[in-house]
Design goal:
about 350 residues; three-stranded parallel β-sheet; 13 strands; alpha/beta
Length: about 350
């Protein structure tokens, strides 16, 4: 589930905030162990940089100066490995978010590892500073890592660190901005723009092929209630995959979110607020559907009773949550046919394709 390491929909946000306040590491000791090792070319990279180094990256928390092409890249965020892999750059470490996929890389990206076996970090209690330092990185990528100033500074003492741009959300900022930051950091700015353009073109083609989507209202919800609430996505919070196809998101849900950029948590008595022409539930297994049907009056919603609700499988749910150029191509391939059925009132109440 999004924002969840232990499948609590907003759990990682809460835990990382607490961890950030408690961090008290001797950064000088960490950096000392990373200065002596000779950096070797990454044998798994398949492309060359098109930008000239050194490169300066402006971040929300400062600047990162990258003197030469990074060879040992550590991902401390939830989804950045997708962008690196599609750019032909293989990180030496990734961070587990959820799903327990091999090397924290999901099926739509697995082939791009090309046999590499990155170390998998755990961010449940915040970045593992000692383990990161022991990997001797020459670049740390955290554009989707929930970093704050203190954490960014500590990571920057280990290696140049790339975070979100100023003004973006700490988690799940605009995917285009994240892609540009990562691509620039590895010297592949033009290639990053190509990734963005490719996704935009694919959405435009899908929307043109399905004019029936235009103007239809839609809601996007997690796949099962958690601790008495159903977590749904206000307009603009990880909903581009629907609006770029022509749908209009259900309005007003942001008032049920604790903070801007977070999911809205709806109690059982408020579940009717998500009814729309189409509802997408990011279910991960068949049992999730019954959990939804047992939640308040959800089973009586017009979209649910009239075949206009979509239920994903676990991999498709993960692709929607990741919202990277690579995962969105998977979404277009596997979700659009389900949306066609939903608009026609023929969507099956199953996670199976």
């Amino acid at each position: 589930m999004p924002f969840a390491i232990t499948h609590g929909p907003s759990g990682v946000l809460v835990r990382l905030a607490a961890a950030g306040a408690a961090i008290a590491l001797a950064v000088a000791g960490l950096t000392a162990c990373s200065t002596d090792a000779a950096v070797q070319d990454n044998p798994n990279d398949t492309t060359e940089p098109s930008d000239a180094f050194p490169i300066t990256i402006d971040n929300a928390f400062g600047q990162a100066v990258i003197e030469s092409e990074p060879q040992r890249i550590v991902v401390v965020g939830l989804t950045e490995q997708d962008v690196l892999l599609e750019l032909g750059v293989v990180p030496i470490a990734t961070t587990e978010w959820y799903g327990e996929q091999p090397y924290a890389v999901w099926p739509w990206a697995t082939e791009l590892l090309r046999g590499a076996e990155p170390v998998v970090l755990d961010q449940t209690e915040g970045p593992q500073f000692e383990k990161i330092a022991s990997l001797e990185p020459d670049l740390t990528v955290g554009t989707n890592a929930g970093l704050d100033q203190e954490t960014y500074d500590k990571l920057s003492e280990i290696a140049p660190t790339v975070s979100t741009v100023d003004g973006e959300e700490r988690y799940f900022s605009d995917w285009r901005a994240r892609t540009r930051q990562i691509a620039k950091a590895v010297g592949r700015s033009a290639e990053g723009e190509q990734l963005i353009a490719g996704v935009d073109e694919a959405y435009a083609a899908a929307a043109a092929a399905h004019p029936e989507f235009a103007g239809k209202t839609a809601s996007f919800s997690q796949g099962s209630p958690w601790e008495g609430a159903l977590y749904v996505y206000p307009d603009g919070v990880n909903t581009d995959f629907l609006t770029d196809l022509g749908f209009t998101m259900t309005q007003g849900l942001e008032s049920y979110a604790d903070m801007p950029g977070e999911q809205a948590d709806l109690s059982a008595e408020n579940v009717g607020l998500i009814d729309a022409d189409v509802i997408v539930f990011a279910t991960e297994k068949e049992e999730d559907i019954q959990s939804l049907m047992d939640f308040g009056t959800l089973s009586q919603l017009d979209a649910v009773t009239n075949g206009r609700a979509v239920y994903t499988d676990g991999t498709l749910a993960g692709a929607v949550y990741f919202m990277t150029p690579l995962s969105q191509k998977y979404v277009l391939e596997h979700l659009v046919p389900r949306l066609v059925d939903a608009v026609d009132g023929k969507a099956p109440q199953t996670t199976e394709v």
